[in-house]
Amino acid sequence: MPEEGVAAIPHSEILTYDEIKRLTGIFASLGITKVKLTGGEPLVRKGIPELIAMLKSIPDIEQVTLTTNGTLLKEHMPALADAGLDAVNISIDALDERLYEQITRRNGLRAALGGLAAALSCPQLKVKVNCVPLAGVNDREWVPLAGIARDKEADVRFIEMMPIGLGRKHAGRTQEEILEALRKAYGEEKTVQGYHGNGPGVYVRFEGFKGRIGFISALSHKFCGGCNRVRLTSAGYLKPCLQYAGGMDVKALLRGQVPDSVLREQVRRAVYGKPAGHSFDSPVTDGMEEMEMSRIGG
């Protein structure tokens, strides 16, 4: 997040819950069956449990999940569970309080860990912890963060820094660098076969661990050929690929009172126009996304 914060968007400019539900029904009719609510921080928007229940009621929607920084999760967890939330990803980049505050600009580690405990208390909920390794910043945190998967029924995932928005100013760490550190602490890993999430993450397990260790390495292990994600911003812009600015303003269509048949065809075209792959290693900048990740959706 920018140090100076982000510009507020008038509430009238973001999608209503009814608009999100209508769009999700159209997505489902085209074969999109899993929805993740993310941000920014989704729990700052009033009525998120109600939105989850609305989305869960749509035929063919198989799963609704949430990505959060966890600081508000403890108070919301009962209502989220009652609404039918299937899984939660909690972003925790350090277990050292001072370093966590340095990275997030808030003294929120205890609240985030309280949110993690609340999520783990719901046996029906799949729980993951997300960490973005930052070179020279949280290198010493990988081993203790991975220890969460040793002690608790949660997966810990290391997500490679992507050069989008402020991400361009930070160097990340590779999957191999992280694995080398974890092997020194926990021994040799075993690869976990098959799919264990909704995306292109790969997982390993260390002996004695209750959970798994995952890696999402979009740069060093390019997985564009298997990418199954599209993003819908809170302001109603459909993005087929993170890197490129291209997409479609579905809010304009919604509020232009077009019929579902027209919406469905426009969404289908946008998704089928998804680029074959990113080109973060290219010096070309024309057509690249300039928005911060907090405005796109993590």
Automatic annotation (TrEMBL):
Q: Which Pfam families match?
A: Mob_synth_C, Radical_SAM
Q: Which GO terms describe its molecular function?
A: 4 iron, 4 sulfur cluster binding; cyclic pyranopterin monophosphate synthase activity; GTP 3',8'-cyclase activity; GTP binding; metal ion binding
Which residues belong to the signal peptide in this entry?
A: none
- Domain spans labelled Radical SAM core: 1-200
InterPro entries assigned: Aldolase_TIM, MoaA_twitch, MoCo_biosynth_MoaA/MoaC, rSAM, rSAM_sf
Q: Domain of life of the organism in this record?
A: Bacteria
Name the record gives this protein: Molybdenum cofactor biosynthesis protein A
Q: Give the species this sequence originates from.
A: [Clostridium] hylemonae DSM 15053
